[in-house]
Amino acid sequence: MKDCVVIIPARMGSTRLPRKVLLPLAGLPVVEWCRRAAVKAGVGPVVVATDHPEIAGTVERLGGTAVMTPAGCPSGTDRVAKAVKALELARGRRFRAVVNLQGDEPFIRASTIRAVARLVSGAKPAGDLSTAVVALADARRASEPNLVKAVVAKDGRCLYFTRAPAPYPAKDAKPAYYQHIGIYGYTRAALERFVRLPPSPLEKLESLEQLRALEDGMTIAAAVVDDRTVAIDTANDLARAARLKSQDAKQRNPHA
Question: Is the CB of residue 211 less than 8 Å from the CB of residue 218?
């Protein structure tokens, strides 16, 4: 894909699960699963943007590229923007589309990364931003605050993101819940606009930075995918991810 770059923001100081991007998962650090999926997607160069030399060193030892960014970035998107500017300066080129793949999504598929990149690429992007959602198979999980829900219009526009169950089922209705996957695409102009904005009231209330874009009137287009997603936010998430990776390995090699 022409003039696109994938940035994986990876900071050391996660509050709920310290050092989570470096924690081992089926023989690799969590962030490395994300990086390899991004490389496989083939949409453009892949760079890990970090605030810590240990993360940078780990990525580089495994064959990846890392760039150092300030520890005080207020959000992952702000870290991505600083990394993009550093890359453009170093490479003497300007990217037209940017993919922000969170470093705690070890089950992300290359096809999902491509779908998100396509929505903000080309002459007529589908939105200022793009992201991916997956139908939530177990509606009981909609009440989990660590599982972010997306409310999506029939044309694919994201109307809202929340940690609460949404949409609310009136009477006997059975809503279709969508789980948000930790990936965003931006047109270059939208990325610059986003980082100039102060954190918005809803963003601060829900602790969801994508609400900053919606509150400012930007559009977010969603790719509906069928990924099996486990974002690593807690020790329980990591244990569940390890079980799934083990099951995957047994299916590939049933006689091992």
Answer: no
